[in-house]
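User: Modeling request: complex.
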Amino acid sequence: MGSTEKIKIESLTYAYPFSDKNALENISFSIMPGECVGIIGRNGAGKSTLCLALTGLVPKFFKGRYSGKVLLDGEDVRQISYEKLVTKIGLVLQNPFSQITGARITVYEEVAFGLENLGIPRDEIKQRVEAVLKALDLWEKRDENPFELSGGQLQKLAIASVLVLQPEVLVLDEPTSQLDSGGTKEVFEIISQMKSQGITIVLVEHKYEMLVEYVDKIIFLQEGKMIAFDEAEKIFSLPEIDEYMVGEPIYTKLCKKLNLKNSRGYYPVKFSEAVGILREARCGSDR
Amino acid sequence: MDLIVKVENLWFSYKSGKFVLKNINVSFDGVSTAIVGQNGAAKTTFVKILKGLLKPTMGDVWINGVNTKETTVAQLAKVVGLVFQDPSEQIFKSKVIDEVMFGPLNIFRDKQYSYQMAIEALKLVGLDGKVNEHPYDLTLSERKLLCIASVLAMDPKVVIFDEPTIAQDRYHIKKIGELVLELEKNGKTVIAITHDMDFVFDYFKRTLVLHRGNLLVDGKTDEILQREDVLKAAGLDTPYIFKISSSVGTVISKLFPI
Ligand SMILES: Nc1ncnc2c1ncn2[C@@H]1O[C@H](COP(=O)(O)OP(=O)(O)OP(=O)(O)O)[C@@H](O)[C@H]1O
Ligand SMILES: Nc1ncnc2c1ncn2[C@@H]1O[C@H](COP(=O)(O)OP(=O)(O)O)[C@@H](O)[C@H]1O
Ligand SMILES: [Mg+2]
Ligand SMILES: [Mg+2]
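Assistant: Request completed. Predicted assembly structure:
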């Protein structure tokens, strides 16, 4: 296996400048090509900082105290040139307002901006921008000014401007926090398409009910430390999970209260499985 | 209860000819109300009008009996507090405590009292350990909580939250929900915009559905969230807790009251 990991983090410890607290502490894990990995944790757990570290913004942009390594295809992110990095890894920031360059006047131009910088042919730019804007239901907004969009529309624009670059690894920090249910489904639909194209995905998300349907594994952070890196049902069945107060999918909570587990001995995390188990329990209790 | 907020025949457009709010008639009293609707439905626009930051293109808004056209944003601020969707629209001081004290200082003109109000508000959101930090060193979830504290410190009669649960973990979503209940109990008029239907179900008695600038329905949360036709027409989802009970059958409520 050794050299085939897409992402490999080795004992990463990081503190922001002037902070005596580690935002990340001794984090190590690997992600294989094409895997989709979720990150969960409480406010301030280090989720966003980990996203910044994966893309090299920590420590290139955010200085501070840094030790350990983040490797993309075996190469230290700190050593990868900017031009190469943008095609390798893309980050959708937690705050969409920070993502917009403002260098362009319309939604369309904002999305095309990154591709122009990469010197992509005009026809291809047109086709890629159009596809992305349509997938996110922003096509009708293409001639509008990004600063006149609603919060949710702006969040979609931030996602579009990264997706259009078609990076090999996609990192999304709470991409659906301001989206309605339709927008949230669109984003997850896109994530699942990307996954089927072999793109590696890392996703911070508090909407566990959606997250568990799409991820292969979950990284669980607490106060900068990695508590677990495992399948969702194992994470949400950890005996000490309640003490961390991260919560769980609503139906997992229900099954926990009723002490209903699946055949593998874990609390169900997916909707259909939880429904099946709850129905069975209901038949049992009716009898 | 008095109708502390009253909206009559409200129309609004940012650019001439294209109305984003169409003939809205609604009022608010002490019952906590959730506003739901798709992205771009004009929820934020609506609450910015209540706060007096945008003026109706046509129609009127009365706050405490005063028409917003005949008063100033500064006067309104004593009555209406708005937690912005985007914290960077709200935050402008370089220290947490200064940010939260700014509003109270303007209203109460008393440094000691304003400080007390600020500290209490920061305690309520769990940020009292960060009084001396720069707001831009806070995470997004903390900046959002800071904005909540800034509004609470002014003790306004009307408290409006524009998507308060953005970036919050489940623990803080529950905290914010409990805060809504507490404010309601203390006689405040609470209005909150959110996309989280389970949050609506858990903490708000009344729900308004905005759809493309129209007020589609207005009523009891329990009833509206059951009306799948209305929700579907407005592009909205039912709460997860309903989805699971309808898929499993009636027994959920029997085994596990919801
Ligand atoms: N400053 C502005 N200038 C012009 N148009 C605007 C401006 N702000 C918002 N709009 C437009 O008005 C409409 C309503 O926007 P608003 O921000 O009120 O929506 P919203 O319901 O709060 O959406 P979201 O759930 O995404 O926050 C949108 O179509 C938006 O593009
Ligand atoms: N720009 C910054 N400067 C200083 N400290 C920061 C900065 N951003 C985040 N932190 C701190 O780092 C820790 C982790 O934050 P973050 O990664 O944003 O958490 P999460 O995304 O899990 O909410 C927190 O203690 C936070 O206060
Ligand atoms: Mg974060
Ligand atoms: Mg809004």
